[in-house]
Amino acid sequence: MYNRKNGGFLQLAAFVLTLGFSLITSALLGLYLGSILDRQRPHKVLTPIGFLLGLLVGFHRAWLLIKDFMKRG
């Protein structure tokens, strides 16, 4: 999976941390934006919708990162 000539363990660790940060940040941002939009409404459905949209964006970003990482070998 990793070897010294391509960056080794530190490159792999940085990649995994980037994936996690991307997923968590986008999910929390979607949750936050949904809660802001829900403040003016009597029903609270935009918060979970924002969270799910944030997760979708995070998984899309993770997929792009993984695809690029695999292409570089």
Describe this protein's structure.
The chain has 73 residues and is mainly alpha-helical. It has one domain (4-72). It has two helices and no strands. Helix 1 runs antiparallel to helix 2. It is elongated and about 55 Å long. The model has no long low-confidence stretch (mean pLDDT 89).
TL;DR?
The chain has 73 residues and is mainly alpha-helical.
Helices and strands, with pairings:
Elements: H1 8-38, H2 46-72
Helix pairs in contact: 1-2
Primary descriptors:
single chain; 73 residues; mainly alpha; 2 helices; elongated; transmembrane; transmembrane helix; ATPase_put; AtpZ/AtpI family protein
Stretches with pLDDT under 50, minimum 5 residues:
none
Task: Give me the strand/helix succession.
Answer: HH
CA gyration radius, whole angstroms? 17 Å
Total strand count, please? 0
How confident is the prediction overall: mean pLDDT?
89
Number of helical segments with 4 or more residues: 2
Roughly how much helix do the residues carry, as a percent range?
over 70%
- What form results from the Cα inertia axes? elongated
Task: Give the termini distance in whole angstroms.
Answer: 9 Å
Number of structural units classed as domains: 1
Structural class, from secondary structure content? mainly alpha
* Sheet of most strands: none
Could you tell me the strand content as a percent range? under 5%
Pfam family, one: ATPase_gene1
Protein name: AtpZ/AtpI family protein
Keywords: Membrane, Transmembrane, Transmembrane helix
Organism: Candidatus Fermentithermobacillus carboniphilus
